[in-house]
Amino acid sequence: MIESVHFKNFKALIDATLPLNRFTLIVGPNGSGKSTAMQGLRMARNPNEFHFLDVVTAPLRDAGDVIVEIGIVFRIDKTDVFRGSGWKYVGDTFGWFGPEFKLHSGQLEHNFQETFASFLNSFQIYTFDAQKLAAPVALVRNLTLSPDGSNLAGVLDNLRDKEPERFETLNEEFGRWLPEFDRVLFDTPSQGHRSLLLRTRSGHRIEASDLSHGTLFALAFLTLAYLPNPPAILCFEEPERGIHPRLLREIRDAMYRLCYPEDYGEKRSPVQVIATTHSPYFLDLYKDHPEEVVIAHKDENGVHFERLSDKPNLDEFLQDAPLGEVWYSGVLGGVPSNP
Amino acid sequence: MKVAVLSESSADEAAIRILVNGILGTETQEVPSLPLRSRGWPSVLRVLPTVIKFLHYRTDAEALVVVADSDDSPIHQSIHDQAGGEDRRCRLCQLRGVSGDERSRLRPVPGRSELKLALGLAVPAIEAWYLCGIDPQVTEATWARRLQSERITYARNTLKKKVYGTERATIAVMTRHACEAATRLVNDLSQVELSFPGGFGSFARDMRNW
């Protein structure tokens, strides 16, 4: 699991450390580095694929010798390993470096570099697009859900064929979320293609393209939660988008299913989930787990991240208002300075 | 009898209805198409006048049941029930104040009797009620000691873990455990009233006075 990520001169993150848990929800104003932090994790995998000028903090583009670094502290077998990588502009030459590893303490017997690489390589940032979710899919082996939600029909089709019990449980769960539906069905719009339909309890078949965006988003979240081998790190940008506030609890539960498989009778490894939100309603759901919430602050010194559980007297604040309202009020920070 | 339940989740609602049926000794009916929800304290306090108004003018509901968590607020005491004895920090007293004000403002509706009300305060959360008869440590008296800064064996999150097996249970898991617990509790309501005299005892008395 990634314990924390330090960003130096990376876009809006001039000197910021993002603490992470198995599940982390980041709240903050627009432009406070929430999405940038996720991008940074992705770009840190293979710094050679990106140019210095794509990643450096804008005012430093012409500042002479500059190092851009993303340092990830990763916990393996109770030992913290530091992985640093980044970009540099030194003596008129652009370049990149890393990954460089440092063991903070103890010894690791296995090849942690490989473990780390496979962990980071399965990293995905999801921002679902309803049209992509609804689109028919050309069937190929080992389809995965794309960052925009493409391939959903194919992924579900695979799940039905390879993990029928999981598929059945997913159907039951989806029926609890949206009681008007009782089953995910498939169609073959052309040879080698699959499309998705939902059957209503009254027996009508609704094509994916006719489903509401929120329904498709909900199905995508649930699909990820029921995969037998989901990616090791998942990021979700504004998972509340298109979802009714009362259904947000179910979306949270789907994410918890990914992060805490042992609590849901799953035998697979935990997934580390990072999500961002602007929804007070979604934030309300984390009142009992402030250690899972990170507030992104933006001020004249740049962006910095702070765990909600590190706020003094938080319990007292939450006696008087739901967490989302307390955040909206501004007393916790992580809100726009104006308006 | 048509009874509306204002709660934080469908799991709480299902369990509360079982408790209500057990206390009243009759099977109550839901108000059709009205799954009331609150976003926890204090939004329950804010939404309560609207709910009361709506039920009175727009439905044939005979009664409304509300249960709030006390969290770290003071526990309801019998002295609060005396005239002038209300504690403004006690959530049950606050709910009574708000609902009383609203009901006094309602205009009579021909053919409609006064909306009955039962208010409960789960100390510190409804999971404590579910553990009644299982964990004798979990009582209002124990929680009162915690409010006086004494170390006790449980916290709000550990109650959830004890009841649901995890601090992060799904609604389906919560509903199953909550309903099992409520079904068990109605077999010995006197024990729940003994362990939770302020929050559950007054809730049960409200209903018995209907």
Structural Rg of chain B = 17 Å
What's the overall geometry of chain B?
Answer: globular
Beginning-to-end CA distance, first to last residue of chain B: 11 Å
- In terms of DSSP E residues, the strand content of chain A is 25-35%
Largest contact between chains: A-B, 23 and 21 residues
Topology (elements, then pairings):
The complex is a heterodimer of chains A (339) and B (210).
Chain A: E1 2-10, E2 13-19, E3 23-27, H1 34-45, H2 52-55, E4 66-76, E5 79-90, E6 93-103, H3 112-121, E7 124-126, H4 130-134, E8 137-138, H5 152-162, H6 164-177, E9 181-187, E10 193-200, E11 205-207, H7 213-225, E12 233-237, H8 248-259, E13 272-277, H9 280-284, E14 293-299, E15 302-307, H10 314-320, H11 323-329
Parallel strand pairs in A: 3-13, 3-14, 7-12, 12-13
Antiparallel strand pairs in A: 1-2, 1-4, 4-5, 5-6, 8-10, 9-10, 10-11, 14-15
Helix pairs in contact in A: 5-6, 6-7, 7-8
Chain B: E1 3-6, H1 10-24, H2 43-58, E2 63-69, H3 91-105, E3 116-122, H4 126-130, H5 140-147, H6 156-164, H7 171-185, H8 189-195, H9 197-208
Parallel strand pairs in B: 1-2, 2-3
Helix pairs in contact in B: 1-7, 2-3, 8-9
What does this 3D model show about the protein?
The complex is a heterodimer of chains A (339) and B (210). With 339 residues, chain A is α/β, with parallel strands linked by helices. Chain A is 29% helix and 30% strand. Chain A has a 6-stranded mixed β-sheet with strand order 7-12-13-3-14-15, with helices on both faces. In chain A, strands 2-1-4-5-6 form a 5-stranded antiparallel β-sheet. In chain A, strands 8, 9, 10 and 11 form a 4-stranded antiparallel β-sheet that branches. The radius of gyration of chain A is 21 Å and the shape is globular. The model of chain A has no long low-confidence stretch (mean pLDDT 92). Chain B has a 3-stranded parallel β-sheet with strand order 1-2-3, with helices on both faces. Chain B has helices at 10-24, 43-58, 91-105, 126-130, 140-147, 156-164, 171-185, 189-195, 197-208; strands at residues 3-6, 63-69, 116-122. The mean pLDDT of chain B is 94. The N and C termini of chain B lie close together (11 Å). Chain B is mostly helical. In chain B, α1 (10-24) packs parallel to α7, α2 (43-58) runs parallel beside α3 (91-105) and α8 (189-195) packs across α9 (197-208). Chain B is globular and about 55 Å long.
